[in-house]
Amino acid sequence: MSAVGPRLTPVQLTLLMCAAEALCMTGFATYTTLLPALQKQWGLSNSEAGLISGIYYAGYVAATPILTSLTDRVDARKVYLLACGLSLAGAAGFALFAGGLWSALFFQFLIGAGLGGSYMPGLKILADQLEGSVQARSVGFYTASFGIGSTLSILVCGWIGAAYGWQAAFAYGAAGPALAALLVNLMMPRGRTHATGTPVPALLDFRPVLKNRKVLPYIFGYSAHNYELFGQRSWMVAFLVFTASLQPADAPMLIGAATLAAAINLLGPVMSVSGNELAIRFGRTRVIFTFMTASGVLACVLGYTAPLPWILVFLVMCVHYGLMLGDSAALTSGAIASATPDARGATMAVYSFVGFSSAFFAPLIFGVVLDLAGGNRSVVAWGLAFTSIGIFGVLAPLARWFYLRRSTP
Amino acid sequence: MELSEGIRKIGFRRWYERQLIECHLYLISGFLCLIAVIASLEEFNLRTPTWETLVRLVTMIAGSAICLWAVKRYLVMLSVAEYAAERSVCEKCAAYGGLDLGRMAVRQAWEHAEGGESPLSPVSVRCRKCGHEWTIE
Q1: I need a surface site. Which of A191, A330, A386, B2 has the fewest CB within 10 A?
Q2: Are residues A89 and A131 both part of a single domain?
Q3: CA-based nearest residue in chain A for residue B21
């Protein structure tokens, strides 16, 4: 069955959804980018500022299971439109009405909910139109567009905020989702919904997903992947700052920690797409477990490299980040390919929800380990903290052994 | 809403769906409280007590308590809903969720609720398709 629309080729469909995803994310990093200015203007304490950052994820986790599983019942384009509406309302509301903690909390929640309701439903819109290796490849590009969207959001919001003020940056954040909703609803073909004649499962009834033994390894894998990724991302700059402090006076770190972290981040989309291509060529399971093990092992030694010359530390971090992202798109395309078509939305809801949950806890656990092991001035503490995020990767061969044992009849 | 009342008023499928949505709201509440606790924990310092330290302490204690309560409630409600859903497939015709209350349901439900033995009162149900009766307990 090829459900590709009459007018658009798979390449056009993929490009369209990638562009829509990047547009949908214009408001993704507006608050965090403009945080210093807003904190000063509103007199926010660090806790209040952190609370506004955190509520974004609450919005995401609130919306993702409901809106993503809803795509099994109604056309995913309508869900996408609703989510873009939430993002638009959040960002526009922030620009026009936010004046302190409570209003900012409310609007950030809406922006987070908007992203939660557009990322996975957008992926479903795309996946519903394609199949086989074309689907797997398009999923790779779509997931990579998340990294591009977040980077663009940081850069453009920073520029606009510096030139025209924070309200203008949020207005830009509101414009993107409006354009994305138009693009998707006018140009994408209708999404697949539950087959008529069969009973529609209850909203949030994830039993069929949890009973699907093909999907579960991908959900666990994505969870482990996100745990390592978000733990590393959150502490990357702090680790580079620590590395800079250990450099000898005659050979200081020549580039700022934030710039180096941004450069490392740029590897994400490239490695995500490349890893997915390798998965198509050499087999998904093998590639996923190889990347996962390699990145886990490297994470376990990464923290101890801090006293080495900064360029070497930077290179090790690049390799680690690349290995970490190598399995990202392959995991997502695997989950989609393994899902039963009628439960694809529910599958992606569980996949995203479980993956996000581990992403939320990873930076916290990293911080706790760092503190308990001696604080951020201790090389051993950094070593152990990085080990705490690499541990699941190190255990990947064991997981693979179980996986293969179970798959063998 | 009790299972028997749910089946009587809105039908099993809707009852189940509402339970799941309610569960999700509890989970979100727990998550929001967790964020509040984490935010209060940041910069918390007992060495320099001020009114702000007190507010942070109260937020942390209250937030943790509500978070634990909400998560516990989420887990209990979810397990009850899943338990009932697993037992709502007719053994004879394999139809899922098309249930009416059986004759003994109301009396059984009351008796069990008064005993306070289980979060899920046993409910006698009848399949709408084939009329087969069984008890979800």
Answers
A1: B2
A2: yes
A3: A204
Domain hosting residue A116, numbered range: 10-192
Instruction: Work out the mean pLDDT of chain A and round it to a whole number.
Output: 90
Task: Among A51, A110, A194, pick the best mutation site for testing chain B contact (most B Cβ within 10 A).
Answer: A51
Query: In this complex, which of B32, B39, B82 lies closest to A207 when CB atoms are compared?
Result: B82
Reported as a pLDDT band with limits 50, 70 and 90, residue A94 is: very high
CA distance linking residue A403 with residue A283, whole number of Å: 15
- Band of the pLDDT at B129, cuts 50, 70, 90? confident
Q: Which residue of A has its CA nearest to B44?
A: A47
Residues of A in contact with B40 (CB under 8 A): 47
Q: Do A204 and B21 touch (CB under 8 A)?
A: yes
Q: Is A361 touching B (CB cutoff 8 A)?
A: no
ipTM above 0.85, yes or no: no
| Residues B4, B120: Cα–Cα separation, whole Å | 10
**Domain of B129, in residue numbers:** 3-136
Q: What is the pLDDT of residues A53-63, one digit of tens each?
A: 888 988 998 99
CB A216 within 8 A of CB A407: no
How far is Cα A115 from Cα B129, in angstroms, rounded to an integer? 42
Split at pLDDT 50, 70, 90, the class of A3 is: very low
Neighbouring CB atoms inside 10 A of B57's CB total 14
Where is B100: in which H helix or E strand? strand B99-101
Identify whether A250 is part of a domain: yes
Q: pTM to 2 decimals?
A: 0.86
Q: Which residues in chain B (82-101) have CB-CB distances under 8 A to chain A?
A: 82, 85-86, 96-97
Residue in the structure block whose two tokens are 């869900």: A79
pLDDT digits (tens, 9 = 90+) for B14-42: 899 999 999 999 999 999 999 889 888 87
